[in-house]
Amino acid sequence: MAHGDITHIDIPVADLAKAAAFYSELFGWQIAEPPGFEGYPMWSAPNGISGGGLAPRSEGFTQPRSYVEVDSIDDTIAKAEAAGATVAMGKQPITAKSWWAVIVDPDGNHIGLFEGTTQD
């Protein structure tokens, strides 16, 4: 993936098991909780490229959220804020080699940012 690519989509759900069964049956998604990500079932579309996760619905997370890969979360946040965005969640680690954050664009849309690699 490269800077600007949509790399992941999270879907907020009330019941992880029920949602996993629904999306698996409806779209043929392979859904599993990878080691280290218990409680966060991740889905992979039949094309083997598209994917994301099923995450517990919470205040401020009520609609699906796309994540855009960026070269630098810090630089992207600075640029977004200069253009009128706000930060819903600052940079947080996912693994030793990857991070995420969430910005809110001037129209109120929550956009996830992803930096790093999922490869060892």
Automatic annotation (TrEMBL):
Superkingdom of source: Bacteria
Matching InterPro entries: Anthracycline_SecMetBiosynth (IPR052164), Glyas_Bleomycin-R_OHBP_Dase (IPR029068), Glyoxy/Ble-like_N (IPR053863), VOC_core (IPR037523)
Domain VOC residue range list: 5-116
One Pfam family matching this protein: Ble-like_N
Name of the molecule in the record: Glyoxalase
Native organism: Microbacterium aurum
Lineage of the species this protein comes from: Bacteria, Bacillati, Actinomycetota, Actinomycetes, Micrococcales
